[in-house]
Amino acid sequence: GIVWAVARYGVEADEMQSADLARSLAIAFGAGSALTFTYGIMQVVGAPPMNWMFVWVVYAACWLVAGAYVRLGRR
Hints:
By secondary structure, the protein is mainly α. It is about 85% helix and about 0% strand. The chain has helices at about 1-10, 15-45, 55-75. It starts with a helix and ends with a helix.
């Protein structure tokens, strides 16, 4: 449902909102991937195992921070 809602928003938004959405998603994907992959590697060397449901939380938090960064950076 979330993927559908975001895709629909991207289609219906104006050009500036679409650009902000694309930038924030790109930043969030990069940051979220770096964090989750790094923790996965750390688990190999002894970090405590974590539930896979936390990956969603990490990506959502990264998207929230990236969205704020993109909007504040525009001003």
